[in-house]
Amino acid sequence: MRATARSFFLSLLAITALVVAGPAVADASALQQPQDTRLAVANQPAAAADAAPTFYADVLPILQQNCQTCHREAGTNMGGMIAPWPLVTYEDAAPRARRMASAVQVGRMPPWSAAAWHKGTFENERVLEEEEKATLLAWAEEGAPAGNPADAPPTPAFLMAEMNSDLEWTLGEPDLILSFDQEYCLDDDLRDIYVDIPLHLSAEQLPQDRWIKSVEYRNGPAVHHIVGGVGGLVPGAAPRVYEDGYGRLLRAGPRDINFNMHYNKTPGPGTAVCSNVKVGITFKEPGDVIRHVTGGNGLFIRPIAIPAGASSYSASREYVFEEDVEILSFMPHMHLRGKAAQYEITYPDGRHETLLHVPNYAFNWQHTYRFAEPPFVPEGSTLRFTLWWDNSENNPNNPDPTADVRWGRPTHAEMSQGYMNFRTMNERHIVVGENPPIADAGDGDGLDR
Ligand code: HEC
């Protein structure tokens, strides 16, 4: 990873953003002062000097590519986080021009927490170019002009598909839909709660192990995010599809799959709500061949004991790869005191590399970091996974800096895992429908045992 001038500039920006905004969950309203925007525009004369950017010609393309997957009616459900309003039409965007400008300037939007030098590494990264930020800033500064509708780029396919269909499942009707046996109900005065809910998979639902082709989630109201989700049912914003030749085994019922649910709502009279999830699964067809098995590990670090007031407590663990793999994704998970996360690898020849650095972990966003080009990791490599927590009073999210903190499910306790997905490189030849050679199917994802 070269330390280019650009990445240096980006990290400076990130540091500035931190000083100005505090952690990513800081109250947005604190950043609405117009001076913020004016100052930044003054630093970007190139964009402002030309004719003022207009909505249709300059701003809309940026929104389409970087914002509208979430900011639209029924936008992408970020594991429960739903964007507050659409940014699709001029009428949607114009009144919010300043908020948008300040949100992108400090890096609060689009939400993403990987270190700036990872730019280009993750296929699902959400990163704006400096020019794009400058355009949004200049547009806000100029009073959000509409421009000529004829300049508008075509409506993106995902919006068209949505407008032309009311299909519940984007990947078609699932073979199996799983839900909790009972809805989970939240009282009027409840704001925020974590609960473990077992999702019961019966023998009737899944009499034998089957190979997963795709997994898609539908969350009920007030679901903030799902963290557990196991046996290949890893939650995430986008539906997960296992391409031809790749597969993941879902073990037969009866068994309980543990889901760690985080519910969140605004308390008040009449806000009580009951909620469930739906997990829609399609399976590989008989005769399909699995050559590469997808598996993983939760990378739990336990026990942990974070002393009261510690501003940078860290804990780590190692994982040794027993066969050649390609790493597909990482997803670090902590609670309110979470500060930073890092995945480093030491190859058998002694080479050392950082695969993911999250310098400012944001509890509100449960990002999965999916590699655009999955790194090859030979047998015998050692992964070192490290987490940091800030249990001091300087962490504005800290519910109690005077408490010693241990591992636990409730928000006031901490979690310490680093869900990892990989696919094995040693080619298998598993024919779906013939007796699945379980012993040869990898060790599942290691999450539910
Ligand atoms: C992955 C989904 C996602 C993407 C992509 C996204 N947003 Fe958001 N946005 C959200 C959610 C969810 C919220 C509500 C945040 C909260 O409650 O903390 C939000 C809130 C906001 C807010 C109000 C809060 C604030 O921080 O000021 C603004 C402004 C905003 N988004 C602008 C944008 C812009 C501009 C883009 C594109 C450059 C964008 N967003 C991309 C999901 C997204």
Structural category is alpha+beta
Q: Into which percentage range does the β-strand content fall? A: 25-35%
Number of domains: 3
Bound molecules: heme C
Biggest sheet descriptor: 11 strands, mixed
- Span between termini: 36 Å
Q: Average pLDDT across residues?
A: 80
Number of helices: 8
**Which of globular, elongated, flat, extended, rod-shaped describes the shape?**
globular
Order of helices and strands: HHHHHHHHEEEEEEEEEEEEEEEEEEEEEE
Poorly predicted regions? 1-49, 76-80, 439-449
The total beta strand count reads 22
Structure write-up:
This protein is of the alpha+beta class. The protein has 3 domains: 5-163, no CATH class; 167-293, Jelly Rolls (Sandwich); 299-418, Jelly Rolls (Sandwich), CATH 2.60.120. Helix content is 17%, strand content 27%. It has helices at residues 5-21, 34-42, 45-49, 55-66, 90-93, 97-105, 130-141, 157-163; strands spanning 176-178, 184-186, 192-201, 210-219, 223-226, 240-241, 245-250, 255-264, 273-275, 277-283, 289-297, 305-306, 313-320, 325-330, 338-346, 352-358, 369-370, 376-377, 382-389, 405-406, 420-424, 430-431. Strands 1, 4, 6, 7, 10, 11, 14, 17, 18, 21 and 22 form an 11-stranded mixed sheet that branches. It has a 4-stranded antiparallel sheet with strand order 13-19-15-16, with no helix packed on it. The protein is globular and about 65 Å long. It starts with a helix and ends in an 18-residue tail after the last strand. 37% of the residues are buried. The model is unreliable at 1-49, 76-80 and 439-449 (pLDDT under 50). Bound molecules: heme C.
